Amino acid sequence: MKSSEKTPLFNLNTWSVDQLARVEQALSRWVVCPEDAPALAGLGHAMRYAVLDGGKRLRPLLVMAACEAVAGSANAALRAACAVELIHAYSLVHDDLPCMDNDVLRRGKPTVHVAFGQASALLAGDALQALAFELLTPALDTTDAAIDSATQAHLCRMLAQAAGFKGMAGGQAIDLASVGKQLNSSELHEMHALKTGALLKASVMMGAACSQSGPATSIAVQDALRNYGDAIGLAFQVVDDILDVTADSAVLGKTAGKDAAQDKPTFVSLMGLQASQDYAQQLLQRTLHSLAQLEAAGLPNTHALRGLADMLVNRQH
Amino acid sequence: MKSSEKTPLFNLNTWSVDQLARVEQALSRWVVCPEDAPALAGLGHAMRYAVLDGGKRLRPLLVMAACEAVAGSANAALRAACAVELIHAYSLVHDDLPCMDNDVLRRGKPTVHVAFGQASALLAGDALQALAFELLTPALDTTDAAIDSATQAHLCRMLAQAAGFKGMAGGQAIDLASVGKQLNSSELHEMHALKTGALLKASVMMGAACSQSGPATSIAVQDALRNYGDAIGLAFQVVDDILDVTADSAVLGKTAGKDAAQDKPTFVSLMGLQASQDYAQQLLQRTLHSLAQLEAAGLPNTHALRGLADMLVNRQH
Question: Which of chain A's residues have a Cβ under 8 Å away from the Cβ of B161?
Fold first, then answer.
């Protein structure tokens, strides 16, 4: 049976719209409503401003897609999807601060520190990180259906590792130290594996962790998911570097050519444009190979993971 | 039986020295060794600098004391103690940044951003928060004896709530907005209940959560611990405000009179010095009353919690 015959009705766009509606609604519900606590209104507004109405939500979509592939708990996946997005959102808020990238615009809007001040941006980022872990650990009598303790703990473990020293924060530190330096291929790969790869891979693994039994937990399936997560994390960055030189700023939604202007090492500066484009396609093939392994292990529902990989590698912005 | 007869040999100083030796050793082991990852050495050094060799470690001691009171798992408590301290440490690093309090010295050493730069201080704080949740969720085959999943999830939930929007980060935001304002007593209490109280109370409750069965889980015991935690959190801040006007900077280890100079609302500015001192003693009595309730509920091992409350209220720095 050909892949196209398995999922005749799957449409990534329709699927994404449905998933994103759930994610946006959940984020709006879970990222504090300032009305609850008037003294905290300022912080609450900054947190909501940082999170709502923005971004491609690639990480939440990966969580939901991976959860579908393993037939996991949709309620658990929604919390995981939002938690991962909060970590991503907080990292952007802190990244934009004057002591880091000093960006004043993001997604066409003033960055959080421009809109709310640096101190509020710092605290909003800090509070968003804490909220991510709070979302993953609802009290067992919470009405949106309990996530069992083992899943809660497992999700927290994966997210903490992906966000921290040997994950996103570590990658940012390497990135910071690398400006103006000549990194070799292995150093560039390591930096991105941590800076963006860790959280993208965690999105896949956390989505899959929303099933705690059945084939999802087999070593073969876990390995296939890890390979998919590694490849998609890397592909994301390679394509980002390609678009930085090929897309114009209007399509990209941010300043094109910025990496080169800042003398940041990129896949394109290291490998050249054509080789980077070839590399991105190879990585797409790696994700498809991993999905074939999932199917062979009895998990045929891989269309969303396939669609996201294709979209991510062949996107124009 | 009088309280003094129950614990004839208890010496807070000896007990603290023993506990702190374990905590310091664990922090040094768990807060990343840069040797593991050369590219991450800079971030690792900043994280260790922020955490090791400093502070009274009041929060870890409260965790350990509460765990003793409920005869909980010492291994779980050690992780909880270190996790709470990492949250405290990260908050100080971010608090000291130029966009917040702009402090250049802490505990007699240059602050993290002075020693490592603002960007590294920001990232070190972010990574320390993630590490706190990583410490609470060891893989179940970890050699230092597993903490069961229910305890892991429960500890994460309490720490995330205490650190976030309706906890420490929220309190800092209120504090930030309150400089130069006239707060009334209820607003001042609310600010401190969040800013410092939430994490101190969480220390008590997390220590107690290291026992998942027996009398520790009864409603009466949980209420008594919460009351103790509330009172000790508040007492800590009242005494801090008192010392800001009565102690000299050398004894205090930080600049005395700073609150008044910055026109920050304090218990002393609101109530006066004598009333603040009386209030601190009342709060001490509340902690002792709560401990009597614990004892009545069949948990007699309260001497460390008692000693810490007394030390905290009657400290000179």
Answer: 130, 134
Distances (CA, A) of B257 to A20, B189, B265, B273: 52, 20, 12, 13
More confident residue, A268 or A251: A268
The length of chain A in residues reads: 317
Interface membership of A190 toward B (CB under 8 Å): yes
pLDDT at residue B197, as a whole number: 97
Task: Report the mean per-residue pLDDT for chain B.
Answer: 91
Instruction: Name the nearest CA neighbour of B81 among B39, B13, B127, B21.
Output: B21
Among A84, A101, A118, A133, most B C-beta atoms within 10 A, so best to mutate, is A133
Q: Say yes or no to pLDDT of A205 above 70.
A: yes
Q: Write down the residue that tokens 């999943």 correspond to.
A: B149
Cα A151 to the center of its chain, rounded Å? 20
Please indicate whether, in this complex, the C-beta atoms of A122 and B94 are within 8 angstroms of each other.
Answer: yes
Is A317 an interface residue toward B (CB < 8 Å)?
Answer: no
B165 vs A: CB within 8 A: yes
Inter-chain CB proximity A173 and B123 less than 8 Å: yes
With beta carbons less than 8 A apart as the criterion, state whether A100 and B119 touch.
Answer: yes
Question: What are the tens digits of pLDDT across the range A163-181?
Answer: 999 999 999 999 988 877 7
Residue of B nearest to A33 (CA): B165
pLDDT(B19) > 80 = yes
What are A104-125's pLDDT values in tens digits? 999 889 999 999 999 999 999 9
Distances (CA, A) of A67 to A209, A215, A264, B155, B305: 8, 13, 35, 25, 45
Instruction: Please tell me if residue A41 touches chain B, with a CB cutoff of 8 Å.
Output: no
Question: Are the beta carbons of B164 and B194 closer than 8 angstroms?
Answer: no
ipTM of the complex: 0.94
How far apart are the C-alpha atoms of A82 and A90, rounded to whole Å? 12
pLDDT for residue A2: 47
In order of start, what are the domains of chain B with their CATH numbers? 11-314 (1.10.600.10)
Facing residue for B166 by CB, picked from A37, A129, A138? A37
- B90 three-state secondary structure: helix
A49: number of Cβ within 10 Å = 22
Top pLDDT among A157 and B34 is at: A157
The span from the CA of A28 to the CA of A18, in Å, is 16
Distance CA A158, CA B82 (A): 19
Give the residue-averaged pLDDT of B195-213. Answer: 95
Q: Give the type of residue at B167.
A: G
